[in-house]
């Protein structure tokens, strides 16, 4: 019977299918309508993407889902970027989603990137001035009724109520928003020349879709922020939202609340720090007082009445004077005894005999000196004679005396080889006695 073909298990089949899909399809963009959107406790999002004739299951995992700012609802028209794959346990063909956009946003994103590249090349995003911390007077450009201004004011009031806040209401969405913000920013810069207390500007609004935030991608607004004399902080949208206003500002905050936190310190933290430093200072002062008190007690115990101190010094001085008197008397007695001893010795000496002895000693030393000088002279004479013989033995003149000669050219250089001369060249020959002037007739090779 013929061999049966090898069969794949179901898991092997699904594994091969998944690898083939991921290898051949790769990453794709797909547009369609959301359906059956599900958000389990895991944080992942599962849904179906469909059109009039087909549908595909999709999975948006938690790591990517947190970057999607717009809500995902059934019926929304979206564009998805993802990888085609297969869920092996059920054999379900699916799309692993990496990014989600509302349909129609592609053109806006392309325009955003073009304008961002242009402004970056012009240096509009080069601002990096430090904002005063905390600012004395803060001007806020925002909607007067939005949640963003409420969050900012609440944080400022809780953290640092000393900052004077001025709200300049401006629209933050729609066609009139960008011109209004540009005009308000220009007005603040002109007024700051008359009122130097104004020292910082905050431009802020809450989150929204790309279309909602599009006013803050305006070229004129970005340039106005760049040229602003007052330092500007931008806090537009949520953390994942980035606008051209954020790039042009001196500082960006991810949310309006975060902007307020960065602008001012926390008074409660400062109070705790002050209390901590106060406690440390009090402990240090107490320890210093205790040390000084102990030192004072020690010094007071050592302190004596001046009269008592004078009596003690007088007694000490008297004792020293007595010791000095005794030492002086003893020294004088010793010196008198020494003088008497020397007088006795001098009287007992026979001066004539001492003179004769010294005279004999001087004659003996003279004879020893004469003998030593004679021996030294003979030794030096012998060494000189020997050196003269050695010098004469190695003297060039002695060599010349044995029949040799030294040849020199007209410059005085010694000629050592026949090849160094030329026929007709004048040479000087130095002999043992006298010199000769000769002319080279012919050169001979060494034989």
Automatic annotation (TrEMBL):
Its EC number is 3.1.11.6. Bidirectionally degrades single-stranded DNA into large acid-insoluble oligonucleotides, which are then degraded further into small acid-soluble oligonucleotides. Residues 267-382 form a coiled coil. Heterooligomer composed of large and small subunits. The gene is xseA. InterPro entries: Exonuc_VII_L, Exonuc_VII_lsu_C, OB-fold_nuc-bd_dom. This is Exodeoxyribonuclease 7 large subunit. It is found in: Cytoplasm. Keywords: Coiled coil, Cytoplasm, Exonuclease, Hydrolase, Nuclease.
